[in-house]
Amino acid sequence: MIIHQTVNHFIQRPAQSVGQRLRTKLFVDEVSHHSNLTDLVYINPEDIKYTTRTKFGSGLNGPIIAQGRWDKIVTPFTERYKVKSIINHFKYNTNWENTEYFKRLNFRRKIRSKHHRGSTKNEILDYLNNYDKLYEDIKKEGYKITSSPHTRINTDSEDLPSQCEEPSEIGVAIGRDGELFWQNGGQHRLAIAKSLNLELVPVQVHAIHADWEKRKEYVQSSKSIFNHTNTGS
Question: Considering the entire predicted model, what is its pTM?
């Protein structure tokens, strides 16, 4: 997706705020690293209802196995303003200009224009219209991974990649009881997948709670989460 440079310079945010760094120190006790971050697993987008990103920023970017209460300190994924705006736009036909996403970008544009030459309102709309194109592409052609696949696995109905070159897909964390949380990357694609009621999307696992790792259910018996995992056999 092409992002206008004049828009990009004021939508970027630090990986972690001060509060997020503090919560990471208090509630994330990294134990070890898990397997390859570029492995893909397939989930139903509706299985992701909460996010760890809001409270911890990049603190759970992996691949890590971590003890602690981090999986209990989560917020609703669809309450993130970008996600809510995308869902409202595509499911409920809300014009971009009436979404919180546009309003925030436009407010930042106005603030910056007092000191710097900022982007225009139309450039912001052009930026958001890229998601219209992405939505139509996914609707017509299906959900595609964003980097080249390494290996593919067979299912009953389709041939799915099980690994890709980069950790560039929707990133998730797995809580102590197997709950899925959005953690890093691909929140726009995940919001679009939810809007389209897709049944499966590929994700990459950034963090696993140590209690879930000990139970080994994420490899052995969790059909709803890891039913397409490639075990290499």
Answer: 0.82
